[in-house]
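Most newcomers find our protein records easier to grasp once they have seen one. Sequence and backbone structure share a record, each on its own labelled line. To make this concrete, we reproduce a full record directly below:
***
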Amino acid sequence: MKIIRPIMRKEFIHILRDPRTLGIILFLPLFQLLMFGYALSLDINHIRTAIYDNDKTASSRRLAENFSSSGYFDVVARPNRNDFTQRLDSGKVKVAIVIPKGFEKKIDSDDKATVQVLVDGSDPNFARVGVAYSSMIISRFSTKVTTESLYRRGIVIRQGIPPIDAQVRVWYNPDLRSVNYIVPGLMALIMMTVTTINISVALVREKERGTLENLIISPVRSGQLIIGKIIPYVIIAFFEAALITGVGTLWFNVPMQGSLLLLFGCLVIYVTGTLGMGLLISAVTDSQQVASFGAFMATFLPAFLLSGFVFPISSMPWVLRLISYLVPARYFLVVIRGIFLKGVGAGVLWPDIVALIIFATLMVTLASLRLRRSLA
């Protein structure tokens, strides 16, 4: 500790005197959390919709009202026949509902009435949701119309039909809020990006300023140098994790069901691995710009695309699924979402915790060996 403590003190002084590093540490995590927390949402509603009512009857108006009052569709126009296709082409609306002439007459005569739903498929997410929501609204309207028609004839549908009643209960996220899924995952993304970028420029800064020679002639070993440089960033990572947890639970109302002790214990393992990877990057580069760019490419893109943060890994091609096993954020996402939303413990999360331990050990070992070569 007599050797490690001065290295830690020197690293803290570098951080406090470097405005760029301070900005990344203090403001970037909060900015990313607020930006992704508000902008990145998987909830799709308020779909811009145009309704072309060619029947203009009470039944057609009731159907149109069902769409506008559902909360999923914003009826922004009721155009004529020649106008609604142009609105779809220009992207002003995503869904167009066409109610044909004779709609109410067919309903009253117990004939099969049709409604056309045109969906803009250029955005598959909007298209899938638009088709599902519109089909659900039309199905409910059809059931209600059929029930009313039978009631007018004196036929009352007894309770218990249909014979199968699905009792659906959503666990862990009953309101299906995407922010509950996104915000915990942001901790894995932010921790990996910020810590790796910060530590990646640490050793390169020594090279650029010519202070690496002082370390070479000193009795500092490569392992001691790594520990002395990693510990300050682990402390900073704890501060950032506490900030993200506080903002997530108090501002975004994300439930915290599990153990904070387990969360921060796993965070130490995860951050140790990401810091080791950052030191490895800094050991093989010669400028701070190259080191920070390489750290960004090695962390943000894999963590965002291949970890399951937004896109499910099971839907990826098998090659990308294999590559995803090399991304530590994949395992930490399982851990942090399990702790936040499910409240599970180490007995359930141990396979991912073991994977994080293996990753951290491997990164620190490789960084130590590469740094030993540099000092030699």
Q: What stands out?
A: The chain has 15 helices and four strands.
